[in-house]
Amino acid sequence: MDVSPRSRARRLLLPLSAAVCAIALAGGCSGTSPAAPAPESSASGTAQGSVKRAPDDLENAYQDVINDVLPSVVQIDASEGLGSGIVYDDRGHIVTNAHVVGDEKTFKVSVATGEAVLSASLVSSYPEQDLAVIKLDEVPDGLKPAKFGDAEKVEVGQIVLAM
């Protein structure tokens, strides 16, 4: 049975979409911070009240995540409008939304490395899940892929950031 390139691309987009979700959920976006020190014990061995966290802990964790992810965020210029994407790997693949690419096949991309505007081409689009992948025609030095987390380690109730 022959599989069309479009079917093959869609089959590849499913694991990619799971990876994108994993980055949002487990790639450090949980807002967790280092463990607080254990409460001190009194002479009788009982804990002295609960440990208080500094009110800035969550804000600092957010800033750390944002500072780590922002260099991986790109601006995509399609003839119909602008959108954003995230650098998926060091080969220049960028994950974005299908509504950003629309029916276009070529794009202009601005990356965080400050390079001149770069050209990119559509790899595949999956409108049913609003996902698309484009690829830079030339990969600049210093392109920073996003760090992807492990979806198996996501826990209910974790804080996430959407960028």
TrEMBL record:
Amino acid composition bias (Low complexity), ranges on this chain: 34-47
Keyword Signal: yes
Pfam families: Trypsin_2
N-terminal signal peptide: 1-26
GO molecular function per UniProt: serine-type endopeptidase activity
Keywords: Hydrolase, Protease, Signal
Gene3D superfamilies: 2.40.10.120
One of the GO biological process terms: proteolysis
Transmembrane regions: none
InterPro entries: Chloro_Bact_Ser_Proteases, Peptidase_S1_PA, Peptidase_S1C, TAT_signal
SUPFAM superfamilies in UniProt: Trypsin-like serine proteases
Region ranges (Disordered): 34-53
PANTHER family associated with the record: PEPTIDASE S12, PROTEASE DO-LIKE 8, CHLOROPLASTIC
Protein name: Signal protein PDZ
Lineage: Bacteria, Bacillati, Actinomycetota, Actinomycetes, Kitasatosporales
